[in-house]
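[Meeting: bench + compute handoff]

Bench side (C.D.) handed over the final construct sequence. Compute side (W.E.) agreed to return the predicted structure before the next meeting so the bench team could plan truncations. Sequence as handed over:
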Amino acid sequence: MTEQTIQNYDEDEISFLDILVTLAESWRLLVFGPLVVGGVAGVLSFAWPKTFESVAIVRLAEEEVALLHAAPVLDPLIEKFGLLAKADGIVDDARQELKKSLTFAVDKKTKLATITAKAGTPDTAQALGGSAIAAVLKELQVKGQEKALLEKTIAINNRAIESAEDAEESIQHNLKKGGLVDQAQESAIKNLAAINSDIAKRSQENEELRQKLEIKGAEVFVQEPSLPQLKTSPKLWLVLAISVLMSFFLILIFVFIRKAILIASQDSETAQKISNIKFLLGFKSV
């Protein structure tokens, strides 16, 4: 019983030599098939749309540069570059496509953001990058109630500064006239110092508030959007490698399946099953 089992096992086992024979029988298909597919893919790759990447490096926090994918930034770009027509008039589709063309990454160490804009031509890629950053900076500008509050605070500080300057002028006038007792003179000098300190403090605060109201400009750039010279995709070598490898494995699977069917068809019972399958699929009668 054991000897019979071992004998059946040996008969059914596919040896390494069988695999080599199968490969040798189809070596032309395995060699020239992938080469032909790779050649066709390489030729077609020249007809695929080219992509160029413009890169900019800016001094923006992660939450600030994330506005690149916000609707208030995307929508003006969609209109400016006519992207809505390419999306068949569907705004959400146009936004999603534009997000793919505008990517960003923030370096955790330097805190600098790298913004990459992709387009079909170098000029368009550079223009898209510049326009996107300008839209982000505009969106970062203070607006609405916050802007009104800042302007109100600046106005209050200006009135306080004017009053303090009048008081300062009056104290200086009295000190120049003389006639003040030592205690009064000392008090006047202290008041003058306090007034000068208050004027400096409010002036500094107003300067900071005005900076918040201004749109950021060239100072945010470490590197302005570049004008790309070389296309980034599709890469010919990558197209060839992927197409050759994929076609080789598909052809290899086909070769072994074909061999397995050929061997199985030599058995009468298996051949009948194969014939039934063909009949059910409508290829030929039983």
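W.E. noted at the follow-up: The chain has twelve helices and four strands. C.D. will use this when planning the next construct.
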